[in-house]
Write a structure and sequence with these properties.
single chain, alpha/beta, Rossmann fold, six-stranded mixed sheet, NADPH-dependent FMN reductase
Length: 204
């Protein structure tokens, strides 16, 4: 457990608008609970509830909700990206988040370092079809490319039996293997964020 106070933004990429229940939202809340045990305060946002416009710029113009979300991301040390699996891939909203983060590749801090250096990201995935490892790989690669650091075992997931209709939120109890993955991912994420907060990456 870290003694450093940290902030996380949890972007939930369910296709279900609030207040409809969501398995991605449930897993995200479980991640937030585990992070809280490591002095991390989380803010949760469902992307579908905000008008995040398509594009690869920091601000896509009038009505775009991304600039305000971006401010939260830049103020936080941790990003959690939670998504369902659809046809074997992250949701379209998760992909949109990555596309909007692409703008940060050209942003640098006062030392000339990419602006997202020293920030940590983890991934949470749910689905009732195969593809969790594929989705985690896609999102982790994209997050790493824009500057986030991915911790060891920095993901958690649950997938139901293939071609069945049971959702994560339908389970009477969270499977221990998923709960344990969530604990490890949250612990490692908080630990790494605290380390980078204390000892940032060096300038080039």
């Amino acid at each position: 457990m870290t003694d450093t106070s940290l902030n996380a933004v949890i972007l939930i990429c369910t296709l279900s608008a609030s207040p409809k229940s969501s398995s991605s939202d449930l897993l995200a809340r479980q991640v937030a609970k585990e992070l809280a045990g490591h002095h991390v305060q989380s803010e949760m946002l469902r992307i579908v509830d905000h008008n995040v416009m398509p594009g690869v710029q920091k601000d896509m113009g009038e009505g775009d909700a991304w600039p305000s979300i971006r401010e939260k991301l830049l103020a936080a040390q941790i990003l959690v990206l939670a998504t369902p699996i659809w046809v074997g891939h992250p949701s379209s909203l998760a992909q949109r988040v990555l596309e909007r983060l692409d703008a940060e590749l050209s942003e640098t801090d006062s030392q000339g370092r990419p602006i997202l250096f020293d920030k940590v990201a983890m991934v949470a995935v749910v689905g009732n079809e195969d593809g969790a490892h594929h989705v985690i790989a896609e999102l982790s690669q994209g997050l790493g490319e824009v500057g986030y650091t991915i911790p060891a075992q920095g993901s958690t997931y649950w997938v139901g039996e293939a071609m069945h209709t049971t959702d994560y939120q339908d389970l009477a109890k969270t499977p221990e293997v998923t709960a344990n993955a969530t604990r490890i991912a949250a612990r490692n994420t908080a630990h790494l964020a605290a380390l980078l907060s204390d000892r940032p990456y060096p300038a080039g």
